[in-house]
Structures are given as structure tokens and as C-alpha cells.
Amino acid sequence: MAAAPVLDQDRVRAAYASLGSGDRAVIEQYWSPELTWETAGNSRVSGTYKGMDEFLGFLGTMGEISAGSLAMEFRTIVVDGDVAVAVTHNTATRANDADRGMDIEEVHFLRWRDGRIVQGRGAMFGTGTGDFEQFVA
Fold first, then answer.
1. Beta carbons within 8 Å of 5's beta carbon, 6+ residues apart
2. CA 94, CA 65: separation in Å to the nearest integer?
3. Angle subtended at Cα 81 by Cα 125 and Cα 91, rounded to the nearest 5 degrees
4. Distance (Å, whole) CA 119 – CA 36
5. Which of 24, 37, 105, 108 qualifies as a cystine partner to 86, CB 3.0-4.6 A?
6. Domains of the chain, CATH where assigned
7. What is the value of pTM for the model shown?
């Protein structure tokens, strides 16, 4: 069995970049099919997503809500063992409502196994959770 790829900042960046490919085979090089993803807050998209189908469904819903405008800029990425933490600045404009935007700081806690993310949790800073909830409402 081949050794798992080295977990470093470049691998974390590549994992997020894979999501934009739309190619499930590429995505599953970085994201485990058994992934569990938790989205903060009490909105219609908040909660726990289990498995690749649910996770990709969540991302699809976010794409629809934002008309594909959701952008994420890395502030920093920290890697230690099988854990990576990505701090991001996320912006988006609501579909069919250019005056309704989102501009939040978020942290993603990512647990990795065999070179792929098996668990992810998102949390927002300051008023970010409320701002996110209003954006997706």
C-alpha cells in the first residue's frame, strides 16, 4: 500500500481547489466518501452532512444561493499531524439580489486520514454566524 500524501498547506489548498473542479473523482482524492461536515448556525443549510452525496448537495445549495459567487480567500492554514485548520475570508452575493451580500471570517477544522479529509467543521467569528444565517435565509 502506498503511503498517504504528505499533509501540508499545499494539500489543504488543493483539497479546496478540487471542489471547484466538479469532478467527483478529483474531489475524492482529497475528500473521503465517508466525510462528515458540520456547518454552523441555525439556518436551512446548517447541520451535519454525512457522506459525499450530502456534502456535495450542501455545496450545490450554496452555489445556488450565491449564484456561484461564493469566494473563499485563505488567511492562514495550520497543519499539525492529522489536523489542519484553515482560516478564511468568505464573500458572496445572493442570487437575484445584488444588494444582499455576505462577508465573513470563518475557520475550518479538518481531520485527515490516509491523505483525505474525513471530518470538517466550520465556525464563524464575531457576527459571522448571524450574517451567514441572514444570507442563506
1. 11, 115
2. 6
3. 30
4. 5
5. 108
6. 9-136 (3.10.450.50)
7. 0.93
Q: For the beta carbon of residue 18, count every other beta carbon within 10 angstroms.
A: 18
Say how far apart CA 83 and CA 127 lie, in whole Å: 26
- The C-alpha cell that represents 12 in the structure block: 489543504
CA distance 3 to 22: 26
Residue for grid cell 475528500: 31
**128-136 vs 51-65: helix axis angle to the nearest 10?**
80
d(CA 16, CA 88): 11
Who contacts 101 (Cβ-Cβ below 8 Å, separation ≥6)?
Answer: 91, 92, 93, 94, 135
Rounded Cα distance, 87 and 95, in Å: 25
CA-based torsion, 47, 53, 56, 61: positive or negative: negative
Other beta carbons less than 10 A from residue 54's beta carbon: 15
Q: Which parts of the chain register pLDDT below 50?
A: none
Q: How far apart are CA 105 and CA 127, in angstroms?
A: 9
Q: How is residue 20 written as a grid cell? A: 471547484
Structure-block grid coordinates of residue 108: 475550518
